[in-house]
Amino acid sequence: MPVLLPLALCGLLAACGGEAAAPPPAAAPPAATQA
After folding, report:
1. Domain residues of the chain, as ranges?
2. pTM over 0.70
3. Three-state secondary-structure class, residue 3
4. Distance of CA 18 to the CA centre of its chain
5. Separation CA 28–CA 16 (nearest Å)
6. Exposure string over 11-34, b if 16+ CB within 10 A, otherwise e
7. Number of helices and strands (H, E) in the chain?
8. Residue 10 to residues 23, 29, 33, 35, Cα–Cα distance (Å)
9. Residue 19, SS3 per DSSP
10. Which of 3, 13, 26, 27 has the highest Cβ tally under 10 A?
């Protein structure tokens, strides 16, 4: 089952923006506005 965790995280991170995978989802929207 541990494989499902990385897959789920990859999906969430991809939705927030692959580049902003390290920081939390909350950091993605501000980064998008700055860009």
Report:
1. 4-34
2. no
3. coil
4. 6
5. 6
6. eebeebbeebeeeeeeebeeeeee
7. 2, 0
8. 13, 17, 22, 22
9. helix
10. 13
